[in-house]
Structure formats: structure tokens, C-alpha cells
Amino acid sequence: MAEMQPTTEILTRISKNSLNNKDEVFTRLFRYLLREDIWFEAYRNLYANNGASTKGVNDDTADGFSERKIQKITEQLKNGKFNPTPVRRTYIQKKNSNKMRPLGIPTFTDKLVQEAVRMILEAIYEPIFHECSHGFRPNRSCHTALKSLRMKFTGAKWFIEGDIKGCFDNINHDVLIGILNKKIKDARLIQLIQQFLKAGYLEDWIYHRTYSGTPQGGIISPILANIYLHELDKFVENLKEEFDKPSKEKYTPEYRKAKYQTEKARKAIRECDPQDYERKKQLIKNLKAVRSVQLKTPCKSQTDKKIQYIRYADDFILSVNGSREECIKIKKKLSQYISEVLGFRLPPEGQYGVGMIFAHRYHDFREEQKRIFEDIVKDEGQTVLGWREVPIDESLIGEEAKRIRPHFLQVFIGRNPDLTESMDFERKLYIIRRRAEKKIIPLSEGMGTDFYIASLSSKTIVYKGMLTSDQMRHFYLDLSDLDFKTAMAMVHSRFSTNTFPSWARAHPNRYIVHNGEINTIRGNINWLNARESKSRPSDYPELTRAFPVVDDTGSDSAMFDNCLEYLHMAGHSLAHAMMVMIPEPWEKDSSMSREKKDFYRYHNFMMEPWDGPAAICFCDGVSIGGMLDRNGLRPARYYVMKDDRVILSSEVGAVPVDQKEVLYKGRLEPGKIFLIDTSQQRIISDEEIKHTMARAHPYGTWCREHILDLKDLPKKERKAPAHLEEEQRAFGYTQEDMRDMIIPMAQTGKDPVGAMGMDSPLAVLSEKPRLLYDYFQQNFAQVTNPPIDAIRESIVTSSTVYVGNMANIMDPDEKGTAALAMDRPLLTNEEMEAVKELQDDRLRPVVLSLLYTDGKGEMEKALHALFDKALEAVKSGHNILILSDRGVDKDHLALPALLASAGLHNFLIREKVRPDVGIILESGEPREVHHFCTLIGYGATAINPYLALDTAADLAEKGKLGPVTVEEALRNYMDASVKGILAVMSKMGISTVKSYHGAQIFEALGIGKEVADTCFGETTSPVGGLGFMDIEEENRKRHEEAYERKRGLPAGDVFKYRRNGDEPHILSAETIRLLQQACRTGSYEIYKLYAKKVNEPLIRLRDLLDFTYPAGCSIPIEEVESADSLISHFRTGAMSYGALSKEAHECIAKAMNHLHSRSNTGEGGEDPERFAPLPDGSSLNDEIKQVSTARFGVTGNYLVHGSEIQIKCAQGAKPGEGGHLPGSKVDPAIARTRRSTPGVSLISPPPHHDVYSIEDLAELIFDLKNANPKAEINVKLTAGSGVGTIAAGVVKAKADGITISGYDGGTGASPRTSMRHAGLPWEIGLAEVQQVLLLNQLRDRVKLETDGKLLTGRDVAMAALLGAERFSFCTGPLIALGCQMYRVCNRNTCPVGICTQNEKLRKRFAGKPEYVENFMRFVAEDLREIMARLGFRTLEDMVGRNDRLKQKGLTGNAKADTLHLDALLFRPYTDISVGHHFTNPQDHQMEKTLDMAKLVRMCRPALEEGKPVRAKLFIKNTNRVTGTLVGSEISRRYGEEGLPEDTIHLSFVGSAGQSFGAFIPRGLTLTLEGDANDYAGKGLSGGKIIIYPPREAAFKAEDNVIIGNVAFFGATGGKAFVSGRAGERFCVRNSGATVVVEGVGNHGLEYMTGGRVVILGSTGLNLAAGMSGGVAYVWNRDGNFDYFCNMEMVELSLIEEASYRKELHELIRQHYLYTGSKLARTMLDDWPRYADQFIQVVPIEYKKVLQEEQMQKLQQKIAEMQRDY
Description:
Blueprint: H1 7-20, E1 26-27, H2 36-47, H3 67-78, E2 87-93, E3 100-105, H4 108-125, H5 142-152, E4 158-163, H6 167-170, H7 173-183, E5 184-185, H8 187-197, E6 201-203, E7 206-208, H9 221-243, H10 253-271, H11 277-296, E8 306-312, E9 315-321, H12 324-340, E10 352-359, H13 363-379, E11 383-389, H14 399-403, E12 407-414, H15 422-446, E13 452-457, H16 469-475, E14 512-516, H17 521-530, H18 556-569, H19 574-581, H20 594-606, E15 614-619, E16 623-628, E17 637-641, E18 646-649, E19 662-667, E20 673-677, E21 682-684, H21 686-694, H22 699-706, E22 707-709, H23 724-730, H24 735-748, E23 753-754, E24 776-778, E25 801-805, E26 818-822, H25 829-836, E27 845-849, E28 851-852, H26 858-875, E29 880-884, E30 893-894, H27 897-910, E31 918-922, H28 929-937, E32 942-944, H29 946-957, H30 966-987, H31 993-996, E33 1002-1004, E34 1006-1007, H32 1009-1015, E35 1025-1026, H33 1028-1044, H34 1069-1081, H35 1084-1095, E36 1105-1107, H36 1123-1127, E37 1130-1134, H37 1142-1154, E38 1158-1160, E39 1184-1187, H38 1196-1200, E40 1204-1208, E41 1220-1221, H39 1228-1234, ...
Parallel strand pairs: 1-5, 2-6, 22-26, 27-29, 29-31, 31-32, 34-35, 37-38, 37-47, 39-40, 40-43, 43-44, 44-46, 46-47, 49-50, 50-51, 51-52, 52-53, 53-54, 54-55, 55-56
Antiparallel strand pairs: 2-3, 4-9, 6-7, 8-9, 10-12, 10-13, 11-12, 14-15, 15-16, 16-20, 17-18, 17-19, 20-21, 23-45, 24-33, 25-26, 28-30, 36-48, 41-42, 56-58, 57-58
């Protein structure tokens, strides 16, 4: 083994490296302090010093030196436990003076450590110190300085002498650390030096802190001072380089002459006779005279400029050859550098601002950025006090973060004395920042870099970056400084969902941290920019220099912050601005005061809400607070401590506290503000804030003066149309529209439902003219933010709109602003007439016609003419524009309504006048929900669908709607439309139509860029498409066909195939017949005929693609991967038991298991009997267990029996919506499987209530991985806007697989609006995901799957080449089993027994597993043939090879030929090391869980032998999913029954992390003394959970929040007792657990289908929404429970039946025994009184079922008795 190189040799090598490479940066230096030999060398150096034996403060001297001491020092250094001792200060007399000077005496240990550090620093810095430096350096002294002075300072004219006063005592620590950081990247060494700098001193045994200066008496003080002053040496060296200019001539003529005379005199002396003393004496006298002249004569010209410089410690001298003015200028520069760079003094607090700037990485351009910034500061009348390099240590950060790291600067700006108010200075700093951004950012982009001002304020400062929480304080060394203190702080660690994260996009922003999404961001920004004319505050006109307010290149959080900041600068308090931007749900709150409603109503008239799930904390340096969105979709909990500290965070336990010191615990509530005002030193309640705001102005009066209600207008009579059918034809009505859309809407008041997805052409591929709406697909929420439940949580929704001239938020009572308020965005025909005839000075409507005459280019001309007329109308004072297409006839066409309204909306935004006017569309074209949504989303304020309403009335009059009257038909149609609009909005997580208005939440599919940019606000259009001329041609063609047809309407046939119909379908009757024949006979030849019929038509996007076959690429098919091997990549999609019959569901499972592939349960759960193999070895077990929003049947036992668990975040046919299983389909077997009640309809919530963000999804993935460590976790997404970014986040969340679902996939039931108009083809989504994952180097960590009408081998090949490696089939297998595509799945009338629970129809099922197996084999063989021709031996080789695809040439379809599929075929450049398919499994870090680390081993006796186990452990919030892995072991071994109750009893103390006790089965009991975070008891499957506050806590449990949101979500069994309150959405989808709690938040018991819940306290709003089973008991303490309960599906009653009272008493008794609840004890002690205060909540349908069961039992008993007698 080689000997270790001596440290002295290493230091010598470091010294040589430093000498040879001046720019070298040194790392990992701290390790040398852990080597023994450096300490002996340091000791030798010190022992020569007589002071080594001088005692410090603890008698520590050199005499105690030993190896043991070295070991102790190195151990302390290694463990980070070394702490320097304060030096002992004494005083000694100054030399040659009576004055005393302080002397610091460190301990010997500190001296020793300092000496070792000095040796390292000297090795690095001594070689680079300049020759001019003489103080405290080896072989240099004051003598060498004087010698250099004599030699160099010749002929100088001017001198500058300097002494940096008190240099050693006043060295700025920040500056020094910043200087060290440039050369040394070793956080531990830097931190050690900082410790010495901050060690302080003892004088008269009183401790004093050190805030500046080098360590007194310290060994390292001299070298630290030299390092610090070396910057001055470098600065002078740069000055010298700039200044020195040698003249061309060496000497002046005068000097040459004098010199000549001197030389001549010397020569005369030399030649003189040595004996001639007199002459020699005379000659010497002459030499002295001429020599004197020479010395007095300037030797060089004034043009010969030169600086000489010498420094000894903090004394320096410069000589200047130059003019006096130049010397003064140099002196000024020196003075400025020393004060500003080496340490400047700041004015008092509030008199200066600090800017944190992310600047250019390289010096020259960074200096230019600083220069521009300083000019702006000066122009704004303020002073730049100086700049500071922010000290950092980048050694710990990631490579990508390091690669794009900016340079960090702080600028200090002095406040002009004229600015008397602090907010005036803040406004000035705001303007400086905005001006700097507008000027410097464009220049920076040109240099390929960024410029970002993280903060510029006199009150706050922001530190942030691409850093983890642990890295933060080590990276920014300021944050390790003990003197860096603040009374308040906001910290936000985000899950990285940005595809390409950046330093600037990290949180905090300048005023906020934001956990959530702003779903309406595009519309908010458009409205904000358009509102510039109304955003000019008269009190602060200078703020206009900051326009535009929003930087639209930022994230949604940053743009929210921009708007909030501007409102605050314009005079609104932060609380007021937050109330305006995120209003609470006020419209339907009957308990809200009138004055508060008026406040919100008037602000709604002024500004649209920023809508979406959000927890936002905000701070301006004085006030700090937090707020939740109106629906409470993000967690936020707080502690108020007895010492007046407040801790608010998304999780309890984030900051450890002594529970005895907690005063009370709470949670942020939906739409509520939690505010601390440090100027008042108190917490201000939400009620007080809003009461104050509401009373600040006469909002009620303003509402009456500025807002007119539509319902108050005079009523008009309905007029019947003269030419109804002609108008219907002109606007493209079809028989299908009438039959499948308008009639159901007018009959039922609901958006019509369809089934089995889409198989007709995309609008842009259709040969028929389509309405423009069909070219737009709705966006939807998935993963990063949730959809909301517009049905069950309707209390947060609002359909109100305001039409008119919006009020000015800067001048609320501005004259001339007025609007017409409407409860819905749709107008009846009678209401439309009333608006047209408005007689009110405040509102001036004008009608603008949308008609034009036919002719090439006439449509676009008419469009621009409309824009011009509208602008003229606005300028002339009209504030309602009515766009009308009435009057269409053979000679007059109507502009497409969407094109006209969207185009005008965006035009008026560009003209900055859009808020001055409302747009009402009066059109015969829109008739279904999607039409209305696109119109509103693209800017129409309200719509009058006059022809649709006339049609509904006509149908009623003709008796085609059954008994429905005309009035009922019209009301039903409007109700269906409004509900449909709210449903579409809610899919995107938007609550109010006001927010949705203009939000442009769509993606174009077949619209060209010019049209998208001009009329649709730059809507994304990934494949291009139609231009204006194409739209005009389509409009003309439809109009022409309408007037050629004399009677009747065209068929339409978009949804359903009809022989010889208007539209082709992939799955025609012939295609279905061929596939079924092939699968039944096993004929591959017939399959090929089927495949040809599927592949040939131009219907899907992939039909525009073809394969490329390079010459010689083909291989023999025998070399291609086998069909069996390929089939292992196939699986059947998620089709639930309930949607499918038992026979069909089991048939598919059996087939896929026989093929050694996988089937999917779907969302309906699975009968546990199917988990075990059948006697013949076959299996009915679905290897893929789906976990959907309803968690039907999701037990721990269910999860452990899967090889894969799929989280369904969105379904292709209805993304953002939940499923609906009618009661007629819920037979006893399905009810048992789904844990529900037979005959009662089941509805799935739209969102996963435990997935409101990407962080939540990561948690659910982790939960499920713990529930079954052997299973892969797959996340199902739908192709849609930004799915690539979402997928990147899903991979980072540790998903093992991702499924990308196409919009056209099959479904058992879906609103037709969603089925046809939501989502995108999987080709677009899959290509985007593949590309984004490649660019982010994530692709090799995940298996990609796709589904959506995969029907042939060609489909699979296309998917593989675009990036998929797994393929899911639904429609194909169903057809193979006998499906005829009747599309009646939702009606329970499937005639072939596949999609029905009707026993008679199920008997018709004739499918066999072999049919499915044949289908899969055919597809595999088809794929093999394609692979052979393409030259791929394995599917793995094929994945992601989109270079083997090309777009077809001209197709003969004019619309199709406008498309460009380049975006699909883009192949990102990646390094060869980046995998294009799955290769690297995810590391789920299961070993870090408490279960894996301890619990499983502790519980082994119980798991293996059933022996009781008891244990008590400490728990913290980072211990997530505690108990779940132990539970999974119980389920795996003991199945559904589990172990006997309480076999394992684990007790914990502390704050439990998320998902405490998730999915635990019977036999496992968890007790928690403390509190728990979100999702406690999720999926409880028979286990027991007990939670109560710490025994020493002083607060009342029943008044404090103990567990977080969404507790016991999807629980299926077991018991839980919680002493304390719960957060929002408690026991959602509980289907069997018994839970007792002492209070809940909003939306408790939602969708509950079984179990018992006892609530011993108050509830939030909307309790029991969608509750269809189980029973709840609620303590009606205040007598107002009916206000909080959603009565739609439940009924309330007192508990009169003895059995129920007994049950309640027993549960409260158990609650007391388990938790020690004082409240429970009080109730039990006075039971009769308290029992009468409880309300029983029972679902109406459930009660009927129970009564029927009781009646049946009674009848059975009577029958038995009659038999006996």
C-alpha cells in the first residue's frame, strides 16, 4: 500500500498550480484539515512563537498538545461540532505612545486550527499576491517596501498616501467571504472561516459579538486582510494599465541638454590633470551646478503618464506622473472603490433598498448591465450606494443548475430625502425595476443570457434558485450567517414540473409563494393588458412607466405576483388585492352579509377572478399572510404559539415545536385570509379584514348606480320564426343534431350522453363542411391541478356575467361605467329583444351585422369591416355590441360566429378597449354546449342561440318532446346548456364563468397559424390547418348545400355509423363483421381484409402518415421477435365490472392471462374470488388494478393482487369528468364489489381528492408502491395541451409507466360534448411526451403506453415509432367478443350481453376467451410483417424511431392537405447516452420508509406466527405512508380477513407525515399522539386508527385541527377515532369504515356509499353532497346544521329509533376509551340531553333500500311463522 503523500507536499503542489493558473478554483480543501501531519506542521510553526503559551479564556496552551488532542480536533471538524472560543481581550501600550491598544488572545486550540487554515490559504493566495504588497508576507517587510519605494518612485510629480482607517476591525465579512468564494469552492472551509470571523471576544468576562473585522489576535487575520486588500491591489493594477502611457521620446529636450552638460562636466574632470587641484576643484563645482540643473529639469514630458504603487498592510502610497486633475480623479476612484466595493456603510433602515439580481455570468456584459441599471436609478432621482457580490457555494448543486446558474449581485439604492413615505420609495423601486427589466432583458437575450431582478425593496429580500431545501442555506452563505435575522420569512420548495426549470422561476416571487395553478391565466393576462387604460391611478401617475404590468414570459405564479404587486403599488393593501384576485365563493352563500356581497359583486364587475387551485402566502415586509382558493384545494395548517410565534405550512411538523407551547392549531379555510400585521403586532381575522374592506366604500350604492339586472328589464313576447327549417339548413343543422342533442336537452335538461367514443373523421379530415367549433378541443385539468365537481360542489360555481363598460379598479366610482348583470351567459330570444330595446342612459347597445355576400376574399373583408365598425362604435360611446347573423338568406352568408366574436374580442384587446364594451352574440349557429364554451372562452360575453331556442319550442309544439311544454322545453334547454358550460369549465378546474370568459382554454386541431394568431389569441395549433380562404370556402360550401336542398335536414352521422351516411366511420358494419368472423374462425386472411378497411380511410391523424423504407432495410420475418413476445406488450384497457357484464369482464381477463399479458379491472374494483387461480390453472384475476377517483373496491387486499396498479388521472373519452353507473346496473354483486348499495346510482368524483397537484400524485404513487411493492405504478393521462410537461412531472414523481390516452377512446358513458370535443389524438400527445422526456433525459425511466382506437398492427407500429412500448386495446377486444357498436352501453340495453347487467340480455353473451386471443395474435402478426419490412428485429429497436415515418403527399382532401405533421415527427437532438425507451427502473426509495427501516422487522412475529406485537416510536412529518407496508404484508399473507383485531398495535408520538395508515387491514392498529397531515387513513381496509393531541397540550382538542384534508378518503372498512377537528373533504367516498371525529371542514362525507361517521362538532359547508349510502350522526350544537348540509340526496332527522341511539352511544363510548376525549366524556355523563342534539343523516335512496330489506325480512319472518302454525 502506497504511503500517504505529506500535506506539505500537497500544499506545495497547490501553490504551484495557483502560480501557473491564476484563475484556478480550488475545491475539497477541508479534507486536508482532517490529516494528522498538518497539525504537527502547524504546531511547529506556532511553537516558535512565544505567545503560544499565553492563556486564552480556558487555560488552553501549547503545553497540552498531543495526538489525542489532534484526534479530538479532527473529530470535531469532521462532525461539524468545532466551535471557536471567543478571544480574551486585554490592552497593551502602543509603542512610543501613552495610548493603549486592544489585544485579542485566542486559545491555543483556536490558534492551531487557524494556523492550519492559514497554511492552506497561503498556499493558494501567496503565489498570486502582487509584488506591490509587503505586509505580513514571507520574506517581505517594511524594509522591502522602503527599498522598493526608493527604486521605483523616481521622477514622480504627485503622491497619494492612504491609510484605510480601522481596516482590520472593519473588514466587511460579506465582502471577504464573497472574495474567498471566487477562489475556493468548499463550503465547510468557508464556514469554518466564518465561524472565526463571528467568534466574538470577552472583555471583563462580558461577551461581545463581532460584526466586522478579522479575528482579533488571530493567526489567520493577516492573510485574510491581505486577501481582502488584494482586491485593492488588483484594482490599482487595472488603473495602472489604463493610465500608464510612455511618451515616444525618452527625455525632454531641456533634460537632454542638462544631461549633456553634466556628462561634459564629468568628462572634463576625468581628463583633468590629477595634480592640478585648483582646476579640479573648479570643475567639481561646475559639475554640481549643472547636476543641480539636471535634477530640477523634468526628464519626461507630461504626456509620459505613469502610476507606481506600494502597499504595506493597510497603508499604501501611489505616485502619479501626470496632471493634478488626473491625480485627483485617481484618488476619487480609489476612495469610491474602497467605500463601495470593499465595504460601504448603509443608511438607517428604510432609507435604502436592496436588489437581488441574477445577472450575466461574464464580466464585461455584466458591467454593461450594471451601468444601464445605475443610469436608470439616477434618472429616477435615487442613488446607487454600491454593489455586492453575493457569496455562494455551488459545490453541492446539480450539474444542470450549475450549468445555467446566473451571477448573483446585490445592489443598494439610497432613498431620495424628498420621498417622505416608505411606500413612495417602494413605488420608486418598483418603477426602477420595471424600467430596468424592459431595457436590459432584450439586450441580455441578444447576448444569450438572462437578467432577472428577484427582489428590489426596502422591506424584503428574496433568495431562491434551482435548489433543494437542504441546499439553500449552504448555497447562499448569507443564510448561514448567524447575524442574518428576520421577524418573518416565506419559504417554498416546489416539485419541479416545469419542463426546463430556471433560476428565475423558482419561488418565492416578489410578494408571494404559490402552491397551485392559475387555470385562467391566459384570459387574466389578456384582460389585464386590455385594461391598461383603466389601470392608471390618478394618485400615482408615474406608475404608467411600469406598463405593461405583467411579464407574460413568466410562470402563472409570477404573473399573479406581477398583478398583485401593481395593485399594491397603486394603493391597495395586500389583503384587499388578494380578496379581489381570489374572491371567496360569495354568490350562493346565504349567510353572507349584504355589504360583503356588494363588495364582491362590485369587484366582480371590475375584475375577473384568477381561478384555480391555490394556496398563496404573501408578504410585503410588514404584513404576512396566507389565503386559499375558493374551493380549498390546497393544504395549509398553522400553529399559534404561546410566545407569539406563528408557523403556517402545507404540512404540520415542518418546523418542530414543543407541543406544550402551542396556543392553538388551525387551518386555512377555502377563500379565507389569515393575516399577521407586525405593525399592529396581532393576527387580524378574516371576518375583520373583510368587514373593514366591505365598509371602506359605499359598494351597495355603487352596485345600484352602475349595475342593471337583466331580470329587471321589461319582458317581451316570444315570436315564432317564419322559415325555421330553411334557417336550420343554412346554419348546418343535421338530423343527428336534432335527435341526439337538442331533443335530449329540451326533454331532460341535461347534456346528452353517448358511448363507445368517436370513429368518424376529425373535422379537418372530413370531406363535409364542419362548423368552426369542431376545430377546437377543450383543455382539461389533470395531475398538476384537479378538475372540480360542478355538480356536488356547486356552491363554489357561478354563471354570472356582466355585459358593458367594466368599472375602473383605480377609480371605482368612475362615471360612465355600467353593465348589465346576467345570472347566466345565455339569453332567451325575449331577453335579447329587451336588451336591443334598452332605454337607459348608462347602457347603449348597438347591433352589428355578421352578414356578407359571396365572393372570393369577401369573408375576410367583412371580418375586418366588422372590427372597424365595432371600434368606431366603442369610441362613440356604445358599451354593448350585439353581433347578429339574423337575416341569412340565399344571397347573404353569415360570418362564422366563433370567428367573428373571437376575432373581435382579440382585436379590441389589441386596441386596449375591450373592457369598455360587452359582446353579445345573437346567432343561429351555436346550439350545443361546446359551441357555447368556445364562444365564451374566446370572448363573447353572452349568447342568444335564437335558432336553437326556436327549434326547441317548435319540437315541443309539435309534440316531439312528449308531454314537455314549450316553456319547459326552453327552460330545460337553457338549464342543460348552463350546466354543460359549468361542467366543461370545471374540467379545467375553473369555478366561475367570469373567469372562463376570454380564458382561451382550448387547443386548435386544424386551424392555421394566421387565423389562430389573428382571431384566437395565438392559440396553440400543433398541426396547422385552415387559413381564412379555407374557412371561407367551407362556409360557402355549407351555405350552397343548404339552399340546394329543398326540404329536410342532412343526416349528419358524426356520432353513429349509418350505411351510406354523410360521414365515413372506421367501424362500419362490414368492418365489424370481418373482425368477428376472423376472430371466431381464427382466419388471419379475413383479419387482413378487416385491417385494410380500417387503415385505408382518411379519418384519424395517423392516416396521414406512412412508413419510410430505406433501401435494403427489410429482413426476413423469421428474424423478427415472436408474436408471443410482442403480445406481452399488449394489454386490454380499463373497462370496469359494472360497465361490462360479469361474463364479458371475466372472459377478457381469462384471455389475457392465458396470453401471459395483462387485463385491467377498470374503476369498478374486482371480486376477491377472482384473485385465486381456477382449478384448471386458468385465472380470472386482472393483473392491472386500476385506482380511479371513486376508489370503488380499492382495498389493501385488492392492491396486493396486481402486477401493475394504474392511477386513472384522466380518461380519453371524458377527461376531467367522473364516471356514472346508473342504479339499474348496480346489482347485488356489483354493489358488493364496489362497497355500495344495490339499485343506487354510483357517481365517480371528477378529481382524485388526494391528487390536487404533482406533489400529491407523487404521494399517491408512493402510497400504492407501499401497498404493493412488487407492482409497477402506471399513471393514465389523456393527450391534451401540455401533456409532455405533465408527463415529465409524472416521471419525476416516480411513476413506472405512463399511459397516453387518445380523445377517441371508447367509453361506457360520456357526455357527447366531452366524447367529441375534449382532448387530442394520442398521436399528438404521445409524440409530445416522447420528445419532452428525451429533452429532459427522463425517457429511459418510464414505460410509455398508449390507447385510443388501436385496431390493427399498423396502429401499433405507428404508436411504437412515436414512442410507445405498450399498447392497450378496448374496442377491438369488445368487437371480437360480439359488440356491434350499437352505442347503448349507458342504457343497460346491450343486445349482445356485453355492456349490460340485465340478466336476460347477459344470457345472450356468446363471447369466448379464444376470440380475444385470436385478435391479439392477429395484431401481433400484422405488426411482425410491418417490422420485417421496416427492418426491426425487436419492438425495443422500433420505439421512438419516428425517422421511419413521413407525412403522405397530397391526399385529394383539400382540408387535410393544409396540415403539417412536423411537430409529431420532430426528433430532438440528444446525446447518445440518453435512452429512447425504458431501461432504468425508478428508485422508489422504499428503504427510507419507517415500515421498511423498522416496522416490518418489529412485526415479523405477528406476520409469520400471528403473535401479538406492541411498540411505541417517535414519528415526524417526513415519515410518510406509515403502516402501509406492514399492512400489505398482512393482506398478502392473510387476504381479506387479515389478522385478529389489535394483533399488531403500534403507537407513535409526533407529527405523522402524509397518508398515515393508508390501506391498513384488519389486525393492525395505529395510535398517534400528536397530529397528522393530509390523507390519514386513506383507503382504510379494516384496520384501526386512533389519533389524539399530545397529553401535555393545553388547547382543547375539539377546537383544534388535528388531522389534515381528505382523511379516510376511499375507506372501505375498519374503525378510526380522532380527538380533534379534521380539514376539508373528510371521509369522501367512505364505503365501509366507522369513524368518529370532533369537527370537519367543507365537503365532508362527499360521495359516501357506506359505513358510519360520527361528528362531535361543527361541520363546514356542503356536507353529504352526493352521499348515497351509509349513515352519519352530527352533533347539532348550534341548531343550524341544515344550512351546512347538502340536502339533494339525503334527509335529516332526530335520532328516535332506539337501535340508532344505542349505536351512537357505543361509538362515543369507544371514542372516549381510545382517545380520552374530554368532549366525549362530557356527552356520556349527560347522555339523554346530548343525544337529543344529534341529527341523523341518511341518503334517501339508501333509506328506501334499507326499508325494503326490512320489509322483506319482516315478510319472510311472517311467512316462516305462518308455516310454523
